[in-house]
Amino acid sequence: MNVLEAVGNTSLVLLRRIAPANGAALFAKLEWENPSGSMKDRMARAVIERAEADGRLKPGHTVVEYTGGSTGTSLAQVCAARGYRIRIVTSEAFSQEKRDHMAALGAELTLVPAEGGLTTKKLILDMVEVARGLAAEPNTFWTNQLENHDAIAGYHALGEEIWTQMEGRVDAFVHSVGTAASIRGVAAALKRHTSDVRIVAVEPGESPVLGGGQPGPHKIEGVGIGYVPPLWDASVVDEVIAVPTADAKAMARRLAREEALFAGTSSGANVIAALQVAERLGAGARVATLMCDSGLKYLSTDVYRQA
Question: From 3.40.50.1100, 1.10.10.10, 3.40.50.11270, 3.40.50.261, which CATH number describes the 3-33+155-298 domain?
């Protein structure tokens, strides 16, 4: 067995203290159990394997990507396992741990400045353009996560795992949106089993573009790119919930202290939205969400420094 075969089959746990009174049961999938510590291992393996299969990526090629960190870490892991050079475009807007992790796995980093250390539409577009320039060099494969449909297939197995672990009783799935690949992949798998499952997207309260609002700077890493992502498909989503950064950080701290679940800010946002859904659905219903990545990726940030 190699490290890429260890991707997936993560645990599913029931939240016991952070749960609505007389509300639905709330389950969380522990995606930090993937080898690099996040759910992005699933898409990284899929996009690299599919590119190898159809000849877009060949031995000796260099992989290029723009990323807030988790995708880059996962791609660096896959490239280390497969023997590819990888060049990553990222920013100081994202945690030092993520940048260090990518570099440790052999990634060559190019940093793009961020206004106030925040995620903004301008930052994302600037990162894309820098990556586009690197990808113009010969013998290069640009994974281009915001537009790569292969990433969606990487999450089909995640949806199947949720369905199996919850014994076919899933009333709603709640998850934050970055590229939209993960929510589409999970939704497709769940809806193959039942069209009644409710799919709820989560986005930053400061940048509620999926809900029709205006873009703005925020600090929920890995989600809320400031414009509707190209892979977004509104037809598979029943509802969008916006969660402010401060609330998402506070919930991440609560999860650690009350549920012993050590996760990042997007996971906190997921749980806040999932609680709203669970309260509405009521007792007897079952709601699933994701712990997207490990809190170990955020120790240099203010997420776990506040009382």
Answer: 3.40.50.1100
* CB-based contact 175:201 (threshold 8 Å): yes
- Rounded Cα distance between 182 and 28, Å, is 15
Domains 3-33+155-298 and 40-142 share a fold: yes
Give the position of tokens 């999938």. 29
CA distance 264 to 30: 12
- pTM of the predicted model over 0.90: yes
CB 105 within 8 A of CB 76: yes
Going from N- to C-terminal start, the domains of the chain cover: 3-33+155-298, 40-142
Residue 173 pairs in a beta bridge with 199, 288
* Per-residue pLDDT reduced to its tens digit, 89-100: 999 999 999 999
Rounded Cα distance between 264 and 268, Å, is 7
CATH code of domain 40-142: 3.40.50.1100
Beta bridge partners of 74: none
pLDDT at 284 over 70: yes
CB count within 10 Å of CB 227 equals 15
Per-residue pLDDT of 230-246, as tens digits, reads: 999 999 999 999 999 99
The pLDDT of residue 68 is 86
User: Cα separation of 149 and 146, whole Å?
Assistant: 9
- Residue 1 in this model has a pLDDT that exceeds 90: no
Catalytic residues: 40, 266
Closest by CA position to 273, among listed 215, 220, 234, 236 = 220
Structure tokens given for 168: 């076919």
Those residues whose C-beta lies under 8 Å from the C-beta of residue 148, and which sit 6 or more positions away, are 47, 181
CA distance 16 to 13: 9
Q: How confident is the model at residue 188 (pLDDT cuts 50, 70, 90)?
A: very high
